[in-house]
Each structure stands twice: as C-alpha cells, then as structure tokens.
Write a structure and sequence with these properties.
By secondary structure, the chain is an all-beta fold. Helix content is 0%, strand content 47%. It contains no helices and 7 strands. The radius of gyration is 29 Å and the shape is rod-shaped.
Length: 132
C-alpha cells in the first residue's frame, strides 16, 4: 500500500478566493487576500491511496470420511525467505501419486522453486518433516 498526499489549492479563509500561494508558506509572511484583506487560509489536500490485493484459491476433492485424494492451491503466496509475494501452484494428487509445486517471481518471471515427482518420493517436506 502506498499513500500520496498533495496540497491542491490555497483559498482565503474568509471569502474563499483562490490564492496563488504555496501551502508551506510561512504564516507570518502572508500577504493579505486581494479580495477581502484577510490573512486566514483554507488548504485543500488530495490524498491518493494504492492498495494491493493478493488472492489464493484452494480446492480439495475427497470421498466422505476419507483423506482428500486431490488438493490444489494456486495464487499469491508470501515467500518467507525473501518476504516477497510470489505466484504459487501446488497439486497433491494422491490418486495418481503425484506432487507438483512451482513458485515464480511474478515481477521477473524467474522460477524460484519447481518440483514435480511421485508423491511417495516427496518426503521430509512441510507436514511430512520428521519431528525432532
């Protein structure tokens, strides 16, 4: 998220006449308003906000009262090592004994991590790690 704040106009505080004056001008050195003679000022400020949205979609296919035979995630994921948002695609297909995970930096297109292998070979990762 980023914020941009810019003064947009300076007006007389009494008669609202538009004044050709900087908003950061020293108040003790103000010239009186050309219309009414007041040294009061009204400042208008524009604020612009940019918000980033990250999405992740996940799906599971399973038979009643059984472990999912297919799990899939695709979308944005915060890469913990670099603290950067990456694109993630992960498929755990127990029915076909297949594991696939691809992590790509969306800004550069660089593949950070790619693995496709039989699920039975995918050990010592994530929840399958051996506990100390």
């Amino acid at each position: 998220m980023s914020t941009k704040v810019e003064p947009t106009s300076v007006n007389c505080g009494d008669c609202n006449a538009i004044l050709n004056e900087r908003s950061d001008f020293n108040p003790l050195q103000r010239q009186p308003c050309y219309n009414c003679g007041s040294v009061k000022r009204h400042f208008s400020v524009g604020i612009e906000e940019t918000l980033g949205v990250h999405l992740m979609i996940g799906a599971k296919a399973k038979h009643p009262k059984q472990r999912p035979f297919l799990e899939q995630k695709i979308g944005d994921d915060l890469h913990k090592k670099s603290n950067t948002w990456m694109s993630l695609e992960r498929v755990i297909d127990r029915a076909k004994n297949w594991y696939k995970e691809i992590i790509v930096n969306p800004k550069t297109g660089e593949i950070i991590h790619k693995i496709e292998e039989p699920l039975s070979d995918h050990t010592d990762h994530g929840s399958a790690k051996k506990r100390k």
